[in-house]
Structure to design on (294 residues):
């Protein structure tokens, strides 16, 4: 649909409609996990908006581009674009846009390992979302703050924050937000050693992401199930239950491979992590087979 809108705007010679269509197409590419295509399209949108002297369009496209670059692990460029977007929104007096930029910049700082800076930016974003009465933004900020709490080792606080975020998404009927939160909460419970509740959340996330066509979330849910099985296998092996542990390792491999197949297709960075995890499990399986024959 967005490609059709872009073609139509070009044919009609409407440069603003063309810029808007490029921005929409960039968002569509981003949601589909096509990050390189998203970056190219959003850069074109920024250029069109700048040529038209449309500062709001510039700010929004810059912010979207920063998010895409961060997802591609191009941290320095991402931060540069997000800071530019934040400046533009502040100049416009756009408080919601400012909150969005603060949030996305906070997420970028978290991924860069700057936990204190991320905490400050996300806290500012949360306060601003509440000030403008934007519940969706509040849910996003809570989800991101939970990730910072996990980095600080505050797992119980993070779980409570995620449950609050999930409840808000459900109240809003935002199924994509809920699906992403299910994956995050599942991972958190896994880190706490609550493998069965964690697996149940990943199963819910898998079903909901599948319904929504959110391939990235679906791939991460498969990977989450694999990690649950892997971690439980490690626990059982430590208790001397090697047969059950070996069965769970096999189960983990199946789930991780299912996740990798999706994540590789859409070309997202998580694929590299899953590849490394599968290589580690292959070594464990080889070692176990060797001990059996020995």
């Amino acid at each position: 649909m967005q490609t059709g809108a872009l073609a139509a705007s070009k044919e009609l010679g409407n440069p603003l409609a063309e810029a808007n269509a490029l921005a929409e197409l960039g968002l569509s590419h981003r949601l589909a996990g096509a990050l390189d295509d998203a970056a190219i399209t959003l850069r074109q949108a920024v250029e069109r908006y700048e040529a038209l002297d449309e500062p709001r369009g510039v700010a929004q496209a810059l912010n979207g581009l920063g998010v895409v670059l961060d997802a591609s692990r191009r941290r320095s460029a991402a931060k540069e674009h997000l800071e530019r977007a934040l400046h533009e929104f502040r100049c416009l007096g756009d408080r919601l846009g400012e909150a969005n930029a603060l949030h996305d910049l906070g997420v970028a700082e978290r991924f860069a390992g700057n936990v204190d800076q991320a905490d400050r930016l996300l806290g500012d974003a949360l306060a601003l979302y509440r000030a403008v009465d934007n519940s969706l933004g509040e849910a996003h900020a809570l989800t991101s703050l939970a990730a910072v709490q996990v980095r600080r080792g505050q797992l119980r606080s993070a779980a409570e924050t995620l449950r609050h975020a999930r409840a808000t998404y459900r109240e809003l009927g935002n199924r994509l937000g809920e699906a992403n939160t299910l994956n995050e909460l599942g991972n958190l419970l896994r880190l706490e050693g609550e493998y069965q509740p964690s697996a149940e959340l990943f199963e819910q996330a898998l079903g909901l992401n599948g319904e929504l066509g959110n391939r990235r979330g679906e791939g991460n849910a498969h990977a989450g199930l694999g990690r649950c099985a892997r971690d439980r296998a490690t626990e059982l092996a430590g208790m001397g239950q090697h047969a059950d542990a070996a069965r769970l390792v096999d189960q983990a491999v199946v789930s991780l491979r299912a996740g990798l197949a999706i994540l590789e297709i859409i070309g997202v960075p998580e694929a590299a992590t899953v590849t490394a995890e599968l290589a580690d499990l292959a070594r464990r399986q080889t070692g176990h087979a060797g001990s059996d024959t020995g």
Remarks:
- The CA atoms of residues 129 and 137 lie 6 Å apart.
